[in-house]
Design goal:
Structural class: mainly alpha
Strand content: under 5%
Largest sheet: none
Oligomer: single chain
Helix content: over 70%
Number of domains: 1
Length: 332
Amino acid sequence: MSQLGDAVERVLTDHQRKKFAYVLIPLLAIICWWPAVSSALALVAGVIIAALLGNPHQTITKKMVSPLLQWSIIGLGAGMNLSVIGKVGANGVLYTIVGIVGTILLGFALARWLGVPPKLATLISVGTAICGGSAIAAVAPVIEAEDRDVTVALGTVFVLNAAALVIFPYIGHALNLSQFAFGTWSALAIHDTSSVVGSSMQFGPEALAVGTTTKLVRALWIAPVALTIGAIYSRLLKKSEASAKPKVPLFIIGFLLTATLRTFIPAISDIADIVANTAKRSLVMTLFLIGVNLSPKTLKAVGVKPLIHGISLWFLVGGATLAAILTGLISN
């Protein structure tokens, strides 16, 4: 990346780079609304532009990130149907609770051992525990995470999601897993819902149904987990009991409200789908803006420990979940 940046510097003057970036960044932000642009592509594109051209809009883009993240999370609630909990059943909910709590605790333990900063460790842990990018986006404002922490956490999750799409179906067939077992494993061990869908779809229709439903139940835990983590951080960072009173993030309430409306007012399902899809595109654009706010120096300062943390946590969670399925601890 640094060599490419040097090459750009030799070809373009500072003024030319700034002028080019001035037009390119808003243009690409608009292109992020095109459905073909993935979250990973948007984030990577933003980081590359920041490294090669800089960001002349940084004052504006930094102010935009937080409110856009929050409104995107509120909109994503419109795509959550609370009734899916009943479809999965009590066992599925129990697996989800145990998995989320166990993953977050293990993530914190690994982070302490590796020396990963607490906020970054929190983002990687909740992203692994719940539903990847959406969980990271929801928790980041609650703990007042830095842009670089969000980017590193998202980048780690995206890389592992891509790997899961290839690796999981192969392992599932090699171990002769049932459709139910593979769908459950995918939902509990793969970060993002999209990758759960992609992986389980390759395995079979029942795996797709089980995996998607179980993952949606897991995604519903974004709100309570974000509230709990927010309360913990509030208490740890404030000295007095009075000031330690946790502040309930309004966007989490908005997320729950839109999910509730979607569930109990079937007549608005079409509108809710439009809101949820709009929120997804808004989140993609927000990830692009997070990327362009970063400099190579900032990313370099983070180091490789967070990546080791994310990969180690994923292997441990995926392996433990698979072992529980193979030994019958998790069954239909």
